[in-house]
Amino acid sequence: MSNIFRPKGHPRFAHQRIGLNRLIKQRGVGALLFDPGLGKTATTIDYLSVLALKSSEPVKVLVVCPLAAVDTWVKQMDEYVPDEISFWAEVLSGSLVERAEALAARGGAMMKSSRPVPKKCQGDYSQALYWNRSMALSTRPERDPKKGPRLNGSPAIIMEVLNLDTFSRRDQMGSRTMADVMLDAIKRFGPDVMVVDEMHKIKGVGTNVSRLIGRAAPHVPRRIGLTGTVMPAGPLDVFAQWRFLDQFAFGTTTAEGRRKPATFGRFREKYAQMGGWMGKEVVGYQRLDEMQDIMAQLAIVARKEDALDLPETTDVTIPVHLSTAESKAYADMKKDLATRLTQNVHASTHSRLTQMMRLRQITSGHLPDDTGEMHVVGESKVNTIRSLVHDTLVGEQRVVIFALFTQEIRMLEKALSMKGTEVQVITGGTPMDERMEMRRKFGSATPSRIVMIAQIKTMSLAVNELVTASHAIFASMSQQRDDYIQARDRLNRLGQKNPVTFWHAVAPGTVDEVVLQSHRDRSSLEKAMLEHIQGWES
Questions:
Q1: d(C-alpha 458, C-alpha 213), whole Å
Q2: Which DSSP state fits 92?
Q3: Final residue of a structural domain among 189, 209, 231
Q4: d(C-alpha 525, C-alpha 514), whole Å
Q5: What angle do CA 418, 421, 422 make, to 5 degrees?
Q6: 3-state SS string for 26-78
Q7: Of the candidates 186, 411, 476, 528, which lies 20 to 30 Å from 421 by C-alpha distance?
Q8: CB-based burial, 412-436: b 16+ in 10 Å, e otherwise
Q9: Range of lowest pLDDT (308-312, 387-391, 419-423, 477-481)
Q10: Does residue 324 sit within a domain?
Q11: Exposure b/e, 57-76, CB count within 10 A at least 16 = b
Q12: pTM of the predicted model, to two decimals?
């Protein structure tokens, strides 16, 4: 078998090729500081593929990322890993202990658990522990539903994906904390590569997540950080991120030539100017040229305005995992045209047209009962969009969210409101003078961060101010394709200075997929919806 790497999928852009070559040169230790939508995931998967082709053993990878990104890694493995490479990729789910046990088992070194584990599960990928509880799972070759997943020799990649929140708990577990248990699991898994996606999320030096990742880093030979916003709050954010990449980068060297790890106290003393109350407040910064020179040794930077070979628009689908309650409500409404919201409260419909609308409302997290009162069914889509806005797109000064339902807009407004972000809401009921003032401010050069939540039918025509944003999120879409196309044109038009990325929050296997695909194919939405509801094959 040839070990020459040939990327799979779309041709790579210049900045991606540069990023891959730098990661190879730096032996898998580096920071891809790419703007959102510039393909950090594809570049990282390319590096993992190169590593797999050179290895006689499966390459074990641990990915830690925010909620909005967990599925992306699993989905894009099949899209970008060359066909000659076998892989196993999953998002671990279940309780924290179960995730830790499953992670250890993937490395063939079971944890000393208080619960008995079947022998057939211990280190055997044909019966991988808790594999059927994975939030998302993709394998090549495909798993046998009777025997569980499998790998097919080498070259191969084993990828385990964990939400950042998995690392945030320090509950006491007997004589150890949950952080100790998770660190033990990481050691037992023995990753060859650890990837921290949206690395700026570990900037807090003393947070549980940042501390645990910092403890894990010395046990992993290759460490890759991905972010488009390395300093969301200022230069001191760099320390914890570089503690993961290279604990010695900002450290000191003894007279004997021995390198000592960096400490935050010394880092702050060197690069921050202290003053204010009791001399404990940061009032300025110093030696930033020196800091940037040190960062440049590991950092690979790509900005949208500099990536001249990018297409005008990029479309990204963000999978939304519905909660148990949302999934049940959806299944009941799809099958029986009715679902029970509480003990004595029901939502039902007597027409296919209304049923289609109810299914779309459920994936957006709400549903009216038979009296017309609105109920929140779940917040899966809202939480995914919140993660996308405040994790992935945290460095963007302008973001647009298009949504169809009023209740969904209210839920998004509440979820996205936080210090440092102004949330604007424009619906059909917004008075014209308020609407025009919000549009004016959004289109201005004011440095404040603004996220606009716009009802798609209200803001899809005769609006020019949205060109100050190069990212738009579709939470839900109108049944009319024209509304979708016109909404996209609000950003991708004369006055736009950067390539535009459109993000689609979609619950897999639901009407969300049906509507999006119908708009893309220009096919009959009504026909596609009926086929979905009745379970016909397309």
A1: 44
A2: -
A3: 231
A4: 8
A5: 105
A6: CCCEEEEEECCCCCHHHHHHHHHHHHHHHCCCCEEEEEEECHHHHHHHHHHHH
A7: 476
A8: bbebbeeeebebbbbbeebeeeebe
A9: 308-312
A10: no
A11: ebbbbbbbbbbbbbbbbbbb
A12: 0.83
Termini Cα distance of the chain: 38
Q: What is the spatial distance between Cα 516 and Cα 506, in angstroms, rounded to a whole number?
A: 9
The number of folded domains in the chain is 2
CATH of the domain at 181: 3.40.50.10810
Total residues belonging to the chain = 538
At 126, the pLDDT band (50, 70, 90 cuts) reads very low
The whole-angstrom separation of Cα 191 and Cα 322 is: 30
Q: What is the distance between the alpha carbons of residues 143 and 126, in angstroms, rounded to a whole number?
A: 8
Tokens of 226: 């991905």
Q: Which residue has the tokens 């490395």?
A: 107
Cis? peptide before 155, omega within 30° of 0: yes
Which residues is 308 bridged to in the sheet? none
Structure tokens at 522: 């220009």
What whole-number distance in Å separates Cα of residue 181 and Cα of residue 195?
A: 20
Residue 127 lies in a domain: yes
Tens digits of per-residue pLDDT, 149-204? 667 778 999 999 999 999 998 888 778 899 999 999 999 999 999 999 999 999 99
What pLDDT band is residue 538 in, cutting at 50, 70 and 90?
A: very low
Determine the average pLDDT of the residues in 416-430. Answer: 95
Answer yes or no: is 293 within a domain.
no
Give me the CATH number covering residue 522.
Answer: 3.40.50.300
> Which is nearest to 451 in space by CA: 512, 377, 390?
390
Identify whether the C-beta of residue 506 lies closer than 8 Å to the C-beta of residue 319: yes
CA dist., res. 304 & res. 11, Å (int): 17
- The pLDDT, as a whole number, for residue 452 is 97
- Look at residue 341 and tell me if it is in a domain: no
- The last residue of one of the domains, among 231, 260, 287, is 231
pLDDT confidence of residue 461:
66
Strands 86-91 and 156-163 turn out to be parallel
- Rounded to whole angstroms, how far apart are CA atoms 364 and 376? 9
Strands annotated E in 186-280:
193-197, 222-226, 252-253, 259-260, 272-275
pLDDT category of residue 122 using cuts at 50, 70 and 90: very low
Stretch (H or E) spanning 88: strand 86-91
**Residue 68: left (phi > 0), alpha (psi -120 to 50), or beta?**
alpha
